[in-house]
Amino acid sequence: MTALIEARDAFAAAHPEGRVALGGRDWGVIEAGAPGASGLLLIPGTLGRADIFWQQIAALESRLHLLAVSYPATGDIGAWTRDLLELTRARGMATFAVLGSSLGGYLAQALADSAPDRVSHLFAANTLASAAGLDQRPPYSSDLDAAPIERLREGFAGGLQNWAAAHPEQAGLVALLLGEVGGRIPEPELRMRLKALKQAPELGKPAIDGARTTVIEAADDPLIPAPMREGVRARLRPGVTWRFRWGGHFPYVVRPLAYTGVIERTLGLADPGDGVQRGALREL
């Protein structure tokens, strides 16, 4: 067992994932921090449960009211948006910031468009602005209802092993993610995550002002190439873009201090340092 897995498991033991029924769907939820404090909703990507954000939750729970979620086995982007608006309202978050990574970043954009009056800040991280053409790329090109789950899991495992070969210093991350795709994320939930993005509705003009938007990306992200990253910036016209020089698709796991620092500075929990011009790009 790697140090990352041990740390995640220790966090999960202290912050067990609860189950919540929303819209007839069974969500996993970790709630931490102080109700009444500023709210932050954390939405993972395809290969993460709520506790994939354990390092951010541990660092921020004394200062924020945090909700992190695991996806249900049914639904779609529209249904999930409604569910999360219901969840945040039920947990006392009249307004809240939302950070979504990858699939979660697409969902976070849809949520901000659906309720811009409730989203105080949008973090769109390692994500995409359009699902057009995604159905032509593996694994989305597969019949996600009928394809053997072993084949889908093996596809993820192959990509992760290639990443480990190119980045041996991130072997701990790869081991953690192999555990997620190997069964920690149940088959119905994994299929639904893939289907939700494959069938995602196109996003229109953003309803939230760019000044309340931060884009987070990584220059070496193997899943979100440069044209996709450019598409996110072009759609959102964010107040600031933070680009990690390295960190791949999971900078919040492998560079937690810097990643949490972005959240702290953006939400006024730390000195923002020098003034940042609208549209600025900062590298870490």
From TrEMBL:
<dbReference type="InterPro" id="IPR026151">
    <property type="entry name" value="Maspardin"/>
</dbReference>
<keyword id="KW-0963">Cytoplasm</keyword>
<protein>
    <recommendedName>
        <fullName>Maspardin</fullName>
    </recommendedName>
</protein>
<feature type="domain" description="AB hydrolase-1">
    <location>
        <begin position="40"/>
        <end position="255"/>
    </location>
</feature>
<dbReference type="InterPro" id="IPR029058">
    <property type="entry name" value="AB_hydrolase_fold"/>
</dbReference>
<dbReference type="GO" id="GO:0005737">
    <property type="term" value="C:cytoplasm"/>
</dbReference>
<dbReference type="InterPro" id="IPR000073">
    <property type="entry name" value="AB_hydrolase_1"/>
</dbReference>
<dbReference type="Pfam" id="PF12697">
    <property type="entry name" value="Abhydrolase_6"/>
</dbReference>
